[in-house]
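C-factor
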Amino acid sequence: MPEQRTVVITGANRGIGLELARHFAGEGCDVIGVCREASPELKEVATRVIESVDVTTASGLQSLIDGVKGQSIDLLINNAGLLQDEKLGSIDFDSIRTQMEINAYAPLRVAEALVSQIPYGGKIANITSRMGSIADNDSGGRYGYRASKAALNAFGKSLAMDLKLKGIAVAQLHPGYVQTRMVNFGGLITPEESAKGLAARIEGLNLENTGSFWHSNGEELPW
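Predicted structure tokens:
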């Protein structure tokens, strides 16, 4: 991809999103960080920050659309996400609905809203989870998170098929078990290590492997 490309990242104010912003800014990209509330760290690295954006609402989506109006987007990274826990016998269906809205529906809303601004050769990276793999589920639980990430994977695969003729490649990327607030900083790798791996997978994304489901370490994951 050419230098001076524009990268839009949702959920960019902390964790993996912030490290991805740092990575692409370090590569000379124009980084547009999208979030509900900006952090000082994001403001330091992003070319521009669009805050007060809740991608689950019509008004939040419109704020994002207005914020990038007329902007060509070389890479869209759908990173915003929510992890909550549900156990059989005490399942909170409102929690599941919320995770579906944030983890699955919002990335599809954002992609549909911005796809006309992604040129031939552009890319969409959906930050998903191997917990969205049905074949890989050997521990149960996490009903809302697993289902929402499985739905995101399905949406991403359909996007890949629909956008292939437009020259836009789409990947579903698992960041690894990362030391972020989402998991109370109990992960196995740092956000920096995860971002480096994710960036490598994005760099290797093309129209031949579009629609694939990858671990940040390069392993192709089962559906």
